[in-house]
Design brief:
Distance between the termini: 21 Å
Strand order of the largest sheet: 6-7-8-3-9-10
CATH topology of the largest domain: Rossmann fold
Shape: globular
CATH class of the largest domain: Alpha Beta
Number of strands: 10
Order of helices and strands: EEEHEEHEHHHHEHEHEEHH
Strand content: 15-25%
CATH superfamily of the largest domain: P-loop containing nucleotide triphosphate hydrolases
């Protein structure tokens, strides 16, 4: 049995993202307590735990949606603890949300083009009104091809199926050219074929050198995509190790799985 410690699991490996002793409370509720993780470049860390374990809160701390009450947080050698979310995106941190956040009245292509906005200083409204996004259209088209939506580029984003909207949100996040991509339950609501396609895309994203943090309840996806798994319970670290080590941990089975892995 291994206590939660370094997410890299390797001595001497420099982490792309490193958090130590993170804490966050809301009123009298301690949502995250004493969480420390390291994420090396080009790796996939899965973050699992029962509902209410603090997973999404931790993701919000890492991405800048919330600021921690205590602890340290660094990315690519920069302290980002006090850095707002939009500056973290420019530094190379991107994320998706559990509840899909798209510009549903814009086209599929325009949603991806919105992600490129972080690469220049044009005001957001001018970005679309005056066509400042034109130079990114080729790259946006490639991203839509990557997520299987090239044929839907001109359609309204809100007309896509739920699974397609999930993939569009990933494409838009990739348009920021991240070094670290965080995904909050990307497989939620997807059917079996869509989960398999998502798994293939995540593996390819990692092969392209982007590190991933994946919050997910789908254990088949977690066990197939992650090199390390970080387990939380009641806002605290419970266990951290390889997928096989997590599968065989009695503490994880008791706290999260209620029996055994399917």
């Amino acid at each position: 049995m291994k206590e939660a410690a370094s997410a890299s699991g390797r001595v001497g490996v420099t982490a792309l993202l490193s958090a130590a002793g993170l804490r966050k409370s809301f009123g009298g509720v301690r949502a995250v307590q004493n969480v420390s993780i390291d994420v090396p470049e080009g790796t996939v860390l899965a973050l699992i735990g029962p509902n209410g374990a603090g997973k999404s809160t931790l993701l919000n701390l890492l991405s800048g949606v919330y600021r921690p009450d205590g602890g340290t947080l660094s990315f690519a050698g920069h302290s980002v603890r006090e850095m707002p979310a939009h500056r973290r995106v420019r530094l190379g941190i991107a994320r998706t949300f559990q509840k899909i956040r798209l510009f549903k009245q814009l086209s599929v292509l325009e949603n991806v083009l919105a992600g490129f906005h972080v690469h220049h200083d044009t005001p957001f409204w001018k970005y679309f009104v005056y066509g400042a996004s034109g130079r990114f259209r080729g790259e946006a088209a490639q991203l839509l091809e990557f997520v299987g939506l090239a044929a839907r580029a001109a359609e309204r984003a809100g007309a896509l199926s739920y699974g397609q909207q999930r993939m569009l949100e990933i494409a838009r996040s990739l348009a920021t050219r991240p070094r670290l991509l965080m995904l909050d339950e990307p497989a939620a609501g997807l059917n079996g074929a869509e989960v398999e396609f998502l798994l293939q895309r995540l593996e390819e994203i990692r092969r392209r050198g982007v590190s991933l943090i994946v919050v997910e309840h789908n254990m088949d996806l977690v066990m197939n995509v992650a090199q390390r798994v970080f387990v939380m319970n009641h806002g605290e670290p419970l266990f951290e190790g390889t997928p096989r080590e997590v599968q065989s941990s009695p503490r994880v089975v008791e706290a999260y799985l209620g029996g055994e892995f399917a």
